[in-house]
Specification:
Oligomer: heterodimer
Number of strands of chain A: 18
Number of strands of chain B: 17
CATH class of the largest domain in chain A: Alpha Beta
Number of domains of chain B: 2
CATH topology of the largest domain in chain B: Dihydrodipicolinate Reductase, domain 2
Radius of gyration of chain A: 24 Å
Structural class of chain A: alpha/beta
CATH class of the largest domain in chain B: Alpha Beta
Largest sheet of chain A: 10 strands, mixed
Number of helices of chain B: 15
Order of helices and strands of chain A: EEHEEHEEEHEHEHEHHHEHEEEEEEEHH
CATH topology of the largest domain in chain A: Dihydrodipicolinate Reductase, domain 2
Helix content of chain B: 25-40%
Radius of gyration of chain B: 24 Å
Number of helices of chain A: 11
């Protein structure tokens, strides 16, 4: 993994092999080798991040991810490369700095640990000993596919927050498991939904649209199944939670949702043969009246835009740019701009409930 | 009915909806130096609404292309980070120009047509946000013409929400400020008016609330029992530059203290608001401003210092006197430096002097709020043979570096028992690892989101003039205290030091 080098960055040329005993002294040497000019000061960031990856993961991808992370989330990084076949733990370190203003560099320290199954506990001990004290610590799972529970269970609890992508795993139980290991979690699948949640929030900012929720009859979510995703379940989970509905029975092709007034609203998932996770969300109101000026709200993907149409006694439309972001871009956006994680837990819990019901139904057949 | 999806974003206001930002006076400096670079950075960070257009409106006849080229120069020169050509091209697709002679009603009708066309081609229902980057003399006529053209919607639930952003100065004194407020309120509700004080957009200033009310250790100490005094310093190295005409009619009290300093002071000294809503915070700020003791003529002589710079050296460069600056009238009596001792007559701050100073041509550009805590009893260390212990000092630096430091006394290593001050520092860049956005970024975004927390309300403006009018009247009419002189590159006249010495205080060395 080459350190990041760019016009506005400076870093040690290569990773230096180190022994456990000399980690800190070698990092200090690297820092001083970068030096300080009279105008530019070096600061070292005050957070930790443990990146857990398989030694067989796509290394170019991992490099790109690290290149992006040192820019947007400078930290003391522990990059744990895991493979059952690695006989003995090896370590190397590097320092990478980014110019954030005319006067200041922010530097990241990167400690790369290659470790086999038998030495996971040793690696956990090493990480624990070298975490910067008293500051927040994230873990980031970078597995191409399903993760190894043994390593996750040892390492993730050392951290305050775990970042992962539930889309990579077979079912939502993995997300529930990870959620149970730390105080909070960041699911990249949830971040991808941000633009949909924003569009929904914005359209319901209009009083007449929000008022028409009292006439809500059906929610339909269309998704393409060319790619595996839980996006439609998360979105449904979030909607159900926000609207304070409860999941009732599974009907023929739809779920029955109970409102606070014990009315029933249908939730329908429609699969399309398209190469996209979410295609359309439609709220259909029962009737238009004085109280319900809106007959439908449709939020749908059209090329690279997310369009919103409100139909009823008036027409409202808006659109937003849909950007297909890579994981690195998604994380950059998250660390730089931020994204609400509020109600992820509740959305996940409802999504699991919906998935369980669906599985039960399939099984009964 | 409340939007059920709103609270899930952890925000107290909506996110920005499709917005058409109309900048009146768009060919001026502010647009090129601040507004467009700020908007570009917002776009880079993904904060702008996906449907967003800027319409530059000014008297000159210009094509879209010429206007965009003019703005590009500003972005290249003034943006806090480099905006790539690709990003600029993408952003520039949303920029348009419209000739708007402020007193020509037809130009406003044409603007309306333009906005409607944009709405059609972009398939979006825009909220309209008008930014008046013009002299306040035009505020009235512009607001009037927007209204006549049907470009103002007073119903905030309507599809086109409307807002207006105005820049300082907000009047020249209480009377003119009141008149200006009246002119705007004739056409816009107070909630639609966003009076920009860019200091409130600075991260460190916003952090005052977070710092005070999210840390259990400071708030219990934040009162007359533990705080000895407070200093607020706003120092500039620059002279008046090309603003001589404006500045000479204004002076630093009107230019800096009336807005930036009193805004910072009111945030620093407020009682905990009931919540973080705009009006809850602003209600508390107004209470602080109301509690600031008004100056009698005798107080003005005793508790204020004004001065004007003469030639001197800043760094190694010699600079001329204020009176030699281009455009400054001969014999001008305008103050380029002011220092005041303020007192807040309420329970929390009784007996705690708050010193404010601001000046041009001072040794360095720095804005800092410094809180001096009372000294501990020295009984335990009295016999150790060193001078009295230093006070704990909490310094909140607003610019150029944003951060907070706390000076504490500590024992240096060695066999002797000694006490020496050490400084704990929190630096924004270091701690958060990302550069702070420009103040205008936050403020423009908040105006688009109709969140007025960081904007000044009409009563705040009027209260601050009510504090300063008596000082300015005595200065102007009675000519006391005299207008002192100070060397450019010094920290002001010696009388400013005397102002603090009366209470055995000293200005912090910045």
């Amino acid at each position: 993994m080459a350190p990041v080098v760019g016009m506005k960055s400076k870093s040690t040329d290569t990773f230096k092999d180190v022994s456990v005993e000399s980690i800190e002294s070698q990092i200090d040497k690297l820092k001083s080798s970068l030096g300080e000019s009279s105008h530019v000061g070096l600061s070292f960031s005050s957070q930790n991040m443990v990146v857990i990856a398989s030694a067989h993961s796509d290394q170019a991808k991992l490099e790109r991810l690290m290149g992006s992370l040192v820019k947007v989330h400078p930290a003391r990084f522990f990059v744990l490369l895991y493979d059952t076949k690695i006989p003995e733990m090896t370590l190397n370190v590097a320092v990478s700095c980014q110019l954030i203003s005319q006067e200041e560099h922010i530097c990241s320290e990167i400690i790369k640990i290659r470790v086999g199954k038998d030495e996971v506990l040793r690696a956990a001990g090493l990480i624990r000993a070298h975490l910067v004290s008293g500051v927040s610590t994230d873990s980031l799972l970078f597995f191409d596919d399903s993760y190894d529970v043994a390593i996750v269970d040892q390492i993730v609890p050392l951290t305050d927050r775990v970042v992962f992508d539930s889309k990579r795993y077979d079912d939502l139980e993995c997300a529930l498991h990870l959620r149970s290991l730390t105080k909070s979690c960041v699911d990249i699948e949830w971040l991808r939904l941000s633009i949909w949640r924003t569009a929904i929030k914005q359209v319901f900012d209009l009083n007449s649209v929000a008022s028409s929720l009292s006439c809500l009859d059906e929610i339909e979510i269309k998704s393409g199944h060319a790619t595996k995703s839980f996006a439609e379940l998360f979105l449904a989970g979030w909607l159900i939670h926000c609207l304070r509905f409860e999941v009732g029975a599974l009907g023929l092709g739809y779920y029955e949702l109970k409102t606070l007034k014990s009315d029933t609203v249908k939730l329908r998932f429609v699969d399309e043969k398209e190469d996209a996770d979410l295609l359309e969300l439609k709220f259909t109101m029962g009737s238009t009246s004085d109280a319900c000026e809106v007959s439908s709200v449709q939020i749908y993907r059209e090329d690279n835009r997310l369009r919103t149409d409100v139909n009823g006694t008036f027409i409202h439309r808006s659109e937003a740019l849909l950007e297909d972001r890579t994981t690195s871009e998604q994380l950059s956006q998250f660390f730089l701009v931020g994204e609400s994680l509020k109600h992820y837990d509740e959305a996940l819990s409802v999504a699991v409930e919906l998935e369980t019901l669906r599985k039960g139904y399939t099984f009964a057949h | 009915m409340v939007n059920p999806f709103l609270e899930t974003f952890g925000e107290k206001t909506s996110s920005a909806q499709p917005t058409a930002l109309v900048i009146c006076g768009a060919t001026g400096d502010l647009t090129q130096r601040k507004l467009i670079p700020a908007l570009c950075n917002l776009a880079e960070d993904g904060y702008l609404p996906s449907q967003f257009v800027v319409i530059g409106a000014a008297r000159r006849e210009l094509s879209d292309k010429e206007f965009i080229a003019h703005l590009k120069e500003g972005v290249d020169k003034f943006s806090r980070r480099k905006i790539s050509d690709e990003a600029w091209k993408k952003f520039a697709k949303n920029i348009f120009y419209h000739q708007l002679r402020f007193d020509h009603p037809d130009d406003y009708l044409a603007l309306k047509v333009k906005l409607e066309e944009l709405s059609d081609t972009r398939k979006a229902d825009f909220n309209y946000l008008y930014y008046l980057a013009t002299s306040p003399n035009f505020f009235g006529v512009i607001a009037e013409n927007f209204d006549s053209a049907g470009l103002i919607s007073s119903d905030q639930n309507s599809i086109h929400k409307t807002g207006i952003v105005v820049e300082k100065p907000f009047g020249h004194d209480l009377e003119t400020a009141h008149d200006l407020n009246e002119k705007l309120r004739k056409h816009f509700a107070e909630k639609q008016i966003f009076r920009i004080d860019h200091y409130l957009g600075k991260e460190t200033v916003q952090n005052i609330l977070a710092f005070r009310f999210s840390n259990g250790i400071f708030e219990p100490l934040w009162n007359y029992r533990y705080i000895d005094h407070i200093q607020i310093s706003v120092a500039e190295t620059v002279g008046v530059g090309s603003r001589a005409e404006y500045f000479d009619a204004t002076g630093v009290v009107r230019d800096i203290i009336q807005n930036h300093v009193l805004q910072v002071l009111s945030l620093l000294c407020i009682e905990p608001p009931v919540n973080l809503d705009a009006d809850s915070i602003r209600d508390e700020k107004v209470k602080v401003l109301k509690s600031i003791r008004r100056f009698s003529a005798a107080d003005v002589t005793r508790e204020t210092v004004r001065a004007q710079y003469v030639s001197g050296f800043i760094d190694d460069k010699q600079v001329g006197s204020y009176l030699d600056e281009k455009g400054v009238p001969t014999g001008s009596h305008t103050e380029t430096y002011a220092a005041l001792a303020l007192h807040i007559d309420n329970w929390r701050w009784s007996g705690v002097p708050i010193y404010v100073r601001t000046g041009k041509r001072l040794p360095k550009r720095i804005t800092e709020i410094t809180v001096y805590f009372k000294r501990p009893p020295e009984a335990l260390f009295r016999d150790l043979g060193f001078q009295s212990m230093e006070q704990n000092v909490l310094a909140i630096q607003v610019q150029p570096k944003e951060g907070i430091s706390l000076k504490m006394n500590s024992k240096p290593p060695g066999p002797k028992m000694r006490v020496q001050p050490v400084v704990m520092e929190f630096n924004y860049g270091h701690s958060f690892g990302v550069p702070s956005p420009e103040a205008y970024e936050r403020l423009l975004l908040d105006a688009m989101r109709s969140d007025s927390t960081l904007f000044t309300r009409d009563d705040e403006i009027e209260e601050s003039w009510d504090i300063l009018d008596p000082i300015l009247n005595v200065w102007e009419n009675d000519n006391v205290p005299p207008l002192y002189r100070y060397d450019a590159g010094s920290w002001g006249p010696k009388e400013a030091a005397t102002l603090l010495r009366k209470r055995e205080h000293r200005w912090r060395r910045l």
